[in-house]
Write a structure and sequence with these properties.
The protein has five helices and eleven strands; from the N terminus they run αααβαβββββββαβββ. It has about 210 residues and is of the alpha+beta class. It has a single domain, classed as Lipocalin (Beta Barrel), CATH 2.40.128.280. It has an eight-stranded antiparallel beta barrel with strand order 1-3-4-5-6-9-10-11. It is globular, with a radius of gyration of 17 Å.
């Protein structure tokens, strides 16, 4: 699977990121602040090359491990977020993309046996590496058993109209680093985020 980031990025830019991907939940991980500059370098390089995404690039489940927060959140919570932070190991936040038919996304937050899942439609916006999405359903579950499922923001009607709406009116991520092991993006709110693959990929059957 090709990376959307250019192959000409400085080696050190990806070296520290791959180290973080492999060790994010161990004491050997790089300092959270050490990821900022490599990500910004890759983002600048990606803007020059504008590689479009393919559905298979994002297919599967990705665990959020590092964030900077949105620009608004950084202004309010600068002492807490700093220049970036790893998420606690006990807090599982995942994104699952599925392109079996129309594109869908599920954002799940797990804390112990409880899980809250926001789901809805997703679409790619070529030629830029943009993925737009909307959450039109919420599900609360305990130990994997759904307790409550409710529509959000128009539910099925919003889902049906999503694919023809302009991206300017939608939430989106701009992915500037995409590999079989990890992905990184900037959200519409200005925050940076890094996810690691949680499920096996064709190039990495063990999922490690």
């Amino acid at each position: 699977m090709p990376e959307t980031s250019p192959q000409h990025a400085p080696p050190d830019s990806t070296q520290v990121l791959f180290q973080a991907v492999a060790t994010w939940n161990t004491p050997q991980r790089p300092a959270a602040q050490a990821l900022i500059q490599p990500l910004l370098i890759l983002e600048r390089q990606a803007r020059l090359h504008r590689h479009a995404l393919a559905p298979q690039d994002l297919q599967g489940t990705w665990r959020l491990v590092w964030i900077t927060g949105t620009q608004k959140a950084r202004r309010r919570l600068a002492p807490v977020l700093g220049a970036g932070r790893y998420l606690p190991k006990g807090l599982g936040i995942t994104l699952t993309y599925d392109w079996t038919e129309a594109g869908t996304v599920a954002n799940q937050v797990c804390l112990g046996p409880l899980s809250l899942t926001l789901s809805g439609p997703a679409k790619l916006v070529p030629p830029r590496p943009i993925l737009a999405f909307d959450f039109t359903q919420v599900t609360l579950a305990v130990a994997g058993r759904p307790l409550i499922t409710r529509p959000l923001r128009g539910g099925p009607a919003a889902t049906a109209s999503f694919y023809t709406q302009p991206v300017q009116k939608q939430a989106f991520f701009v992915y500037f680093w995409v590999t079989p092991q990890a992905i990184a993006a900037r959200g519409r709110g200005g925050g940076l985020a890094l996810w690691v693959r949680q499920d096996p990929s064709p190039e990495n059957p063990s999922g490690s």
